[in-house]
Amino acid sequence: MKKMRIIIIGLSVFIVWAGSALIIYFFVEKDFRGITGDMFGAINALFSGLAFAGLIYTISVQRQELQQQRKSIEM
User: Where are the transmembrane segments (predicted)?
Assistant: First the structure.
């Protein structure tokens, strides 16, 4: 269930990323693409935040697995 949720979130992020590139390419004149692309720099922050959230999630999952492993070794 968690894997499906992660896949859906990943696909959503990819769609937002690809959509922003398509919007810039098709709806902005060539002369203003650089300026407009700078305005979409916030999407870079989104990816950085998602990468950090993924890192925190990975650490928490590894911590839980280590705790379970320690309990099974003690038994």
Answer: 7-28, 40-61
